[in-house]
Amino acid sequence: MVTRFWLILTMVIVLLAGCSSVVRDRSTMGDLPAKWAATAEDETAYSGVDSLEGAADEKDQQAQQVMEEIRLAEEYYAYGVQANGTERWQEAQYNFEKALSLLSELNVDREDESAVGYSYGKLIDDIRAEYKLTLLYLATIPGEASSQAFVDRFGEIDDFGKLKDEKVITTVDTHQEYDIPVVVNDQVENCIVYFQTIARDFFQAALTRSGRYTSLMMKILDEERVPRDLVYLPMIESGFKTNAYSWASAVGPWQFISSTGRRFGMERDWWFDERRDYEKSTRGAARYLKYLYERYGDWYLALAAYNAGEGKVDQVIKRDGTTDYWHMSHLKRETRDYVPLFLSSMIIAKNPEKYGFVPFYDDPLQYDVVTVDKPLDLYEVASALGTTYDYLKMLNPELLRKVTHPHKESYALRIPPDQKEKFWASYDRLASARSATLVHHTIGKGETMSLIAKQYSISTQALADANNLSKKQRLTEGRTLMIPVPQSAREDRPTKQPKRKGYDAPSATGKGSDLYVVRKGDSMADIASAHGTTVNQLVMVNGLDKSSRIYPGQVLNVGVKRFSQSRQSASAPRASKSQHIMTYKVREGDSMDKLAKQYGTTSANLALLNGFENNRRLRVGQLINVPARSSVGSKAKTAASILTYVVKVGDTLWDIASAFRCSVEEIVKLNNLTSLKLNVGDRLKIAKS
What we know:
Helix content is 44%, strand content 8%.
């Protein structure tokens, strides 16, 4: 009798679970056992799957993809370590940032005690340790560096006197209006100096990018009744980047960790992360800061707690016996620096020209919102609206998987302004992303793209797009492909896969190699920037055209030898005559501009010859490459040529300047620009040495 009772109870549970896809009201979760209800809420079973087995299948797919992404991040990290070992600092910085970007999109917590959580946390710690070394040798913090790198570099500076020897301004306009108290002391002045020197590129990029968000953020701050000047906090938290990521796994423009994000209403799962959303995270930050101010009655303590947590600040108050932020000796270094960095960013952002920054801003984001009742592929939406995936992603940064959330009854999607009518006219024709799922296929011997596509009843193009490959790409046995399988074909897909072989990273190219193996997520601009060259040069050297697509596994000639000559100068006192360069030892008073004039070249060309940033500070006794005497005065060899660049959707002046290794000011001057606003199709002149 007892056995029969448990059998009936089991059948009831299975029936309830099978119907979970039609249960819409979370209140009905109370009818299920607690364990099942928690699973339904936290894991949110795939709504296109009619059984718990199907839900588990999706979870397995996600777990596999997490490990794939971690392995790929490890590969970028390994390349960064290799670049550090041969003093290719720009390349190292690029690789560490790529690794961090991959990790930022994974739904993994450092506190997770699983093997995945351990691998994830250890990799972040390893990246941080190596990245710190890179930062010490970079003359400036690159504009696209992570905000954590910017904070860490500041903490490594012991002598601000040398930086103050440069032409910097530390005075503060006392007539400027602030709605948060401003104290100007040595700590704040040091931060102002840091922004004007080592962190100049970072701050200019953040200042430019802030134009997209500040008007919207100020509106939300007003609604939440907190000071408007808090809008400058993302300058130091994220550089106004929605995908910003920290060593502590904080994400988004306001840098929320997972637990605090949930506390203030931001959801997160495999498909999306609301901490990245510029509206939701701003409202959450405003409410958190308001709570902290009401707790401490002081904005400096509220900001310190925002950085370190209430518990840490409470402990320091008790230990130091004071609530005066400036006299708290037991705050950790990062928190001691936090308020001065914020105050200095606010001071400069309110009057950028005074401190030598260009007051150009990206246009404020404008969009309409449509509420959809089926998950949509962003690429399809972009095609229907005549825009790009990248532009939709910029409007909807919380989306992580190129589709709107497949488990939401409705989803508010941002689209370009004045496009609602066009969107709804094509809505019924847009296929539901719920009708497909991803499975993994290990490439067997002799398999081709078309053969695998046919095996899964999908198009070769769909298979290529899912894996960022060319349709004619030659496949490597043992590698894994992601297959977007139509839901109707899931039952017919192969049930047994060949045993997966270990992931083989491309072989190291070695010190001074001219070859680079393209990896997932790479772009021509990224590769060019990392190797001290330009997109145009990559295109020319590799026989490509500007519309050519690159794909993982492709080998490109990046000309690293040409840009790392200076790294070898210590062991090779004089370069070969055929290269028309020689070694020069830097003396007191030398600068890039002075040496460029002395040797009949430009500072940009000198930087290119040494793999430096244009505004690199030189150290007395440093060995650098300069044009050989025989070539001095040859205007044909040093004169700048003018390139033409056609503006694409989503381009900013900072992006273009970074890609072509020049400054925003140079582009503005050469093109007589009076506004930062760029239009798609505009032709810009770019000076290139």
